[in-house]
Amino acid sequence: MIPPLPLSPGFRSRLLAWLTRGIRPEPGPAVLRGNRLYILPSRQGMVVGMVLLVMLLGSLNYALSLGFAFTFLVGGVYFLSIFHAYRNLLGLRLTAGRPEPAFAGGEALFPITLEGRGQERWALGLKLLDGEPLYTDLESDRSLTVELRRPAPRRGRLPMGRIALFTEYPLGAIRCWSYVELTVSTLVYPAPEAEGRAPLPAVVETALGVEGKLVGDSGDFSGLRPYQEGDSPRGVHWPVYARTGVLATKRFTCDGHGEIWLDWEATRGLGDPEARLSRLCRWILTAEAMEIPHGLRLPGGEIPPGRGEIHQRLCLEALALFGESTVGRTGP
Question: Residue 161, exposed/middle/buried by CB under 10 A (0-12, 13-18, 19+)?
Answer without folding.
Answer: middle
